[in-house]
């Protein structure tokens, strides 16, 4: 209900208190956008009503002229409502806004004035009668406005919260600002809205959306117009056409947009760190039940709250954007840190197939000898896939005894067993949304294979000691150096698990079969290690290249990497010679040479012991000191290898 409609319904009842026999002429004159005009009138019109009403409000007292009396109307609760009004003053339009906004301007928008102008039987109404009427009208207008404000405020708050929830999901600043502008137009009932973000470096306000402006972006100086006033004052500013302050509006922008600005409301946008980040502007208020074509005090409060929600959403969007950019940068760095290097035709074929299978969720089985780069290939597939932003979790199945495998892979609840002092998340849960790399899957126990198969089929895990199924979204890449087909024939590996893992199979060749890839890998490792220790990158002499290309690299890429790392730390020259490589002869090369055993006394036991010592030393050297790998080649467990070395009197590190 508009102000005029409210008066039309209430004033006849109120004037009826004067008496049904009296001849009444007059009504209510209101100030609207700096102009006075009758909003309710009974009887013949009187041309001086506006002037008398203005005088009554300005003097704040009873005035008379030409048979009429005038008195200002105070739109406040009566004495009987003062206590409750004080408690609920937040719902009063003028009080709430004035208390929140300070003294930026003396007259708030839309908070006009009203006066009763009345003549009874051709004479000015007496002061007591007029005061009684003005008091009753003031109470009515206060209640009516309060009721309207509460209903409108509830609706506006609901709409703002709905929009704010959507803002947190938007992934484009253009969509975000457009949604904010749409929300402002809806809750303020205005024609347009623009969000001006402050670029302190250039001292510009960048406004979007800007309808009618090429590119949809409006740039203005940060001290220009209403938005500049709001920015630097830190308080709301408003404007309505028809006043004496036309200079506050840039009409050239109207001309460029073929648009006419009739009213403006601008409030500063302040983030959670109490920093002003811009200005939120509403343009051209539409007439409504609480105003005409200018923004009012309730609109100031509404846009101020909306600006708060918008500031939080913009801060949140910027934080999400920064985090996303950081994540993408780290993922890219991780992908580049272990590239699949090589131009040998076998590697090119593997790279092509890996690129094809990466976008899918197919299980991949990577085969190859120790040190050929199975985990690097698994990471290559992961970082080429849609799961690249998810985790890559690697598990060495050979290192897990059956009693710990279930807890390691699937997790356990607190108190599930003796040492379970806390709940632990398993590797499958840790890899949720990403890739789980199961290395040396051929060494997994029979019980572990059965449990793994169940999870791969059902895609749910149950923690040890728990009962709740936990769905997992994981891509599995498995790897082994074992001949799985032979293990299946020997009943040491489940055939159904093999088919579950072996959807796509990729086999990495030994390094000795990759030709010039040896030098390409060596130069990559050399540059990487030199960068880490801060030394200039040396070059390989021809003799070093020949030695490296003729070496059969039983330890594959791992042995090459260890060799290059040793070179980086132990050499100081700019050219690496063959003598600098310090490569141990490979097992195949060593097998063609009869070891010198001049100190052996001819006893068979002594000769056997000496051969075992030399054989173990050569294997450890060929594996670059990797005891686990050397033990595997000898067909021993790592702990058994150490025990054998101590029996032979060889030095050990444990």
What does this structure look like?
By secondary structure, the chain is α+β, with helices and mostly antiparallel strands. It has 5 domains: 3-149, Beta-Lactamase; 168-319, GAF domain (Beta-Lactamase); 338-509, P-loop containing nucleotide triphosphate hydrolases (Rossmann fold, 3-Layer(aba) Sandwich), CATH 3.40.50; 511-583, Helicase, Ruva Protein, domain 3 (Orthogonal Bundle), CATH 1.10.8; 592-654, Orthogonal Bundle (Arc Repressor Mutant, subunit A), CATH 1.10.10. It is built from 24 helices and 23 strands. Strands 1, 2, 3, 4, 5 and 6 form a 6-stranded antiparallel β-sheet that branches. A 6-stranded antiparallel β-sheet has the order 9-8-7-12-11-10, sandwiched between helices. The protein has a 5-stranded parallel β-sheet with strand order 14-17-20-13-21. Strand 5 (114-120) and strand 6 (123-124) form a beta hairpin. The protein is elongated, with a radius of gyration of 42 Å. Residues 80-107 and 590-594 have low confidence and may be disordered.
The helix content is 40-55%
Number of helices: 24
Major sheet summary line: 6 strands, antiparallel
Assign the CATH class of the largest domain.
Answer: Alpha Beta
CATH topology annotation of the largest domain: Rossmann fold
Radius of gyration from the alpha-carbon trace, in angstroms? 42 Å
Termini distance? 90 Å
Indicate the mean pLDDT.
84
CATH architecture of the largest domain: 3-Layer(aba) Sandwich
Which structural class should the secondary elements be placed in?
A: alpha+beta
| Count of DSSP strands | 23
What general outline do the C-alpha atoms trace? elongated
Our estimate of the beta-strand percent is: 15-25%
* pLDDT < 50 stretches: 80-107, 590-594
Quaternary structure of the protein? single chain
Q: Which homologous superfamily in CATH is the superfamily of the largest domain?
A: P-loop containing nucleotide triphosphate hydrolases
Q: Compute the number of structural domains.
A: 5
